[in-house]
Q: What sequence folds into this?
């Protein structure tokens, strides 16, 4: 009792002196979490950031970028890392890990599924990497403005490249990925032969030749929020886009768009931590929290990206599942992004694409 009285008196004295606050010590810290913006970041804010702040008192500063490793590389090489966790595509995780740009993450720290299944067995294949932890399955698809095609509707990837049957401007991401894959699929290459074809000089030439045929009709986009807006503004008649951004435009903003799933290129996004993070312990805690079963299922309430934990899938509402890339009907002619191929060829393809674009 004497000890308790002494402790209470000390606490009161410190509080009177302004040395104690009612908020946790952790609340004095903040994490900078970097992602792709728009509806996708909103889904993370609602499912991850707000609940984490409510639980820990740690503020989350959300920042946007357009992908790639350039900014991560610059921070790490300068020894001035200001980003704590970054939402990365799998090919960038592989490359960034090989270059020593990312911290390693032991999957043993991740929470098990509710039934006790270890995280290593609960995550889908490829979603756990020595330098990252997966969050979503997403895909790049294309969509068209239904008001532009009152008769026959585009239905295949070949239709995207057929400007005679389906006239109008096209929107495409400004870069080789996944345009090379789309070009080959649109040119008749089966999805299971795409990377085999791209691994030959003739195959790369074929992809660029297919892009050549529509180049004059293409308007290039860089940020994920752009293609739905380009469609809405009538700037393009159809565009490639991230499936979740299109879902938001169609079902939240009630836009007259239709997604074409044929030839979709699906991928994984993962949390990576730039090497030299000043808040490594707290960032790892955020990664653990945001990739548990419930949080990944919660994100699917806000956007149509599939959770990477098997235990999360039963928690996803049935009316959302048909809008997921992995839904059976949507997945009939899908191609998984070959992260190893891109890790090996990205610099080369970036250079060739830039030269081709400049012609």
A:
């Amino acid at each position: 009792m004497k000890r308790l009285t002494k402790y209470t008196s000390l606490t009161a004295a410190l509080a009177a002196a302004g040395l104690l606050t009612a908020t946790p010590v952790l609340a004095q810290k903040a994490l900078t979490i970097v992602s792709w913006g728009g509806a996708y970041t909103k889904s993370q804010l609602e499912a991850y950031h707000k609940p984490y702040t409510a639980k820990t008192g740690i503020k989350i500063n959300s920042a946007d970028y357009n992908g790639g490793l350039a900014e991560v590389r610059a921070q790490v090489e300068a020894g001035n890392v200001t980003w704590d966790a970054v939402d990365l595509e799998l090919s960038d995780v592989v490359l960034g890990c090989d270059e020593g740009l990312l911290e390693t993450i032991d999957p043993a720290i991740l929470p098990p599924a509710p039934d006790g299944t270890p995280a290593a067995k609960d995550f889908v294949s490829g979603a756990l990497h020595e330098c990252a932890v997966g969050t979503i399955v997403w895909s790049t698809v294309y969509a068209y403005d239904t008001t532009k095609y009152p008769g026959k509707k585009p239905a295949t990837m070949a239709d995207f490249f057929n400007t005679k049957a389906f006239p109008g401007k096209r929107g495409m991401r400004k870069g080789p990925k996944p345009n090379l894959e789309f070009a080959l699929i649109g040119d008749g290459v089966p999805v299971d032969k795409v990377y085999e074809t791209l691994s030959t000089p003739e195959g790369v030439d074929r992809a660029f030749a297919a892009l050549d045929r529509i180049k004059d009709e293409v308007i290039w986009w860089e940020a994920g929020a752009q293609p739905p807006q380009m469609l809405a503004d009538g700037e393009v008649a159809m565009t490639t886009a991230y499936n979740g951004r299109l879902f938001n435009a169609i079902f939240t903003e009630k836009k007259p768009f239709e997604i074409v799933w044929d030839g979709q290129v699906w991928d994984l996004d993962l949390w990576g931590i730039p090497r030299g993070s000043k808040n490594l312990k707290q960032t790892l805690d955020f990664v653990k929290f945001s990739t548990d079963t419930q949080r990944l299922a919660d994100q699917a309430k806000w956007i149509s990206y599939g959770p990477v934990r098997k235990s999360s899938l039963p928690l996803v509402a049935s009316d959302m599942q048909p809008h997921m890339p992995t839904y059976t009907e949507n997945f009939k002619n899908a191609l998984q992004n070959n992260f190893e191929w891109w890790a090996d060829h990205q610099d080369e393809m970036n250079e060739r694409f830039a030269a081709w674009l400049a012609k």
